[in-house]
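Dear Dr. H.,

I hope your travels went smoothly. While you were away I took the liberty of generating a structure for the chain from your last submission, since the lab meeting agenda had it listed for discussion. I wanted you to have the full record in hand beforehand rather than looking at slides cold. The sequence, exactly as received, is reproduced here:
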Amino acid sequence: GLCGQITSWLCCGSWRACARWLWRRRPRCGSCRSGTPSPSGSATASRRAAGATTSARSWQQSKVRRLPTISPRKSIILSLLHHLTTQIGGSPAWDYVGSKFGCGNHEGHSGWTIAQLEGIAQDVLSVHRPDVIMLQAGTNDLFFNQPGYSGGADVAGCLARMTTLLNTTFSVLPSAHVFVSGVTYINATRCANYSQAPWHPPNCPTSMQSWIVELNSQLPAVVSAFAGRGFHVSFHDPNPSCNFVADDYWTWGIHFTESGYSKIAAAWLAAVRPLFDLIAARRAHDAL
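The corresponding predicted structure, in token form, is as follows:
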């Protein structure tokens, strides 16, 4: 069965792939304790590396230890913090962790691909030992799949990269529960003019939206293959519940506004909440 502690690692490929992890220690910011956002909207977590492993732990343990999340921007993390705080609260308790820090631990890497995340996965996971991983990546792989740019990948390449990343993840943490997310949709009309941005990026490939749809349709097969090998892994596609509209996208159509981030956070909460509820129920049962 699942171990009694939970960590999640969310990798979002839109604009940045970053991770924020829940951890056993309280945050350093007093206003950010237990994932509660500060008045300014920031949140913190302890910087200390977790010393314990994820081997068999009791359901009676008092905290959900390490929930890493990787997100396009801090706004998703803060929105998710709000949803976790108001709808789950402190039962079971949780906290973010990660090797980077900004009033909250995280593993944020602007513009990274699945392959780049895989390049650090073994070291990062070995240090922080997450129990639940929320993984979303692929936007940057597809974005850079165009002439003149290296590091990109087509749909088949993304699937192969995701398989490699999951192999690495489960080789380090065979008992972790991984939520693999679909890639969030872009606003293709706006993204066709992305080169007009001040930092002069290329436009999104004309077929990028259809690539995203195709990738999301094939990711469940990758997930099923790992589940068939006995690993705890689930597929989560935020797009249907988010139902993005124009106002959810920032100027260039590949990043989101606050309303878009809030929708993504709510979708992630819906995906991860059953696992929180399962842990809480198990602990209540074991306490009888």
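Two observations you may find useful: The two ends are 20 Å apart (CA to CA). Strands lie at 16-17, 21-22, 96-97, 100-101, 105-106, 109-110, 132-135, 177-181, 232-236.

With kind regards,
E. W.
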